[in-house]
Amino acid sequence: MKVEVPVEALKPTDFASDQEVRWCPGCGDYAILAQVKKVLPKLGIPRRNLVFVSGIGCSSRFPYYVETYGFHSIHGRAMAIASGVKVARPELNVWVVTGDGDGLSIGGNHLIHAIRRNIDMTVLLFNNRIYGLTKGQYSPTSELGKRTKTSPKGVLDFPLHPISIAIGAEASFVARTIDRDLNHMGAVLERAAQHRGTSFVEIYQNCNIFNDGAYSYATEKDTKPDTVVVLEHGKPLVFGKDKKKGIRLNCTDPEIVELGEGITEDDLLFHDERAPEPSLAYLLSRMHYPHFPEPIGVFRAVERPCYEDTLADLVADVPPPSDDDKELNALFNRGDTWEVKD
Description:
CATH superfamily of the largest domain: Thiamin diphosphate (ThDP)-binding fold, Pyr/PP domains
Largest sheet: 8 strands, mixed
Number of strands: 11
Strand content: 15-25%
Radius of gyration: 23 Å
Structural class: alpha/beta
Helix content: 25-40%
CATH topology of the largest domain: Rossmann fold
Low-confidence stretches: none
Shape: globular
Number of domains: 2
């Protein structure tokens, strides 16, 4: 660790480690790293109280590149290790960096249960719809029919949708952003880091080696206005180059409408990220290109008790050991027991 800098004087450069950043040239991970380093000084947290935990994959190099404490853990187990860190040391600010393969395949079970417990940590899931580190196999989010090294005739599995999974697991904060939209990404990351509870952020990230252009429809200037709708709390879902298109509900189904000729913004679906019931957020998570513009921004932001707080309260109420407990301990430690000495 470098010499500790006063919190009020921290700058993004103070979070740059001495390690060479080694991602492929043009990888979207560079932009994400830069935005995280810009957000960290705004949190007012000493570097010694920041922890980054990752699993396995290109995204999981992240802890090497930020000047904080961190774990580069094992495949799919980042959420489990981060949960233990936060429960054992609740004063720490814990971040998890994972990918669509690491977090949703072998790590899917850990992801779901950490989210439902609402452990106070910020989870960044880089979604490039491919396995990058292991050279281009299809991942849990790869599109149906996609041809890869492990699916030469096309993917047969229906893809998982990370936002839908997070909302279904009762996440208290769910958001999506894009690696090419720097201002939007920075704002989303800052909100996620300041939320109390599990903050889940899906980041559309380009792998220019094995899945280049996976999100070009959502990043290119000529297509983005018609393929992306920005979620803003309390505002209608309007999109398009001239903001002349919108999303409204037809019974329980979303539909695209043109504003004008009797249709106004008042007829559209208004976003409510604070709704206690997650049905609206889930509905938005099911909107996918090419049938709908894809939402980016905060889907859900509600308050719920944090797991580590309720656990601390539970432990505080545990009575001191009774005579029966002492007798049980004596039973465990008698007979065929031994001590290994140096």
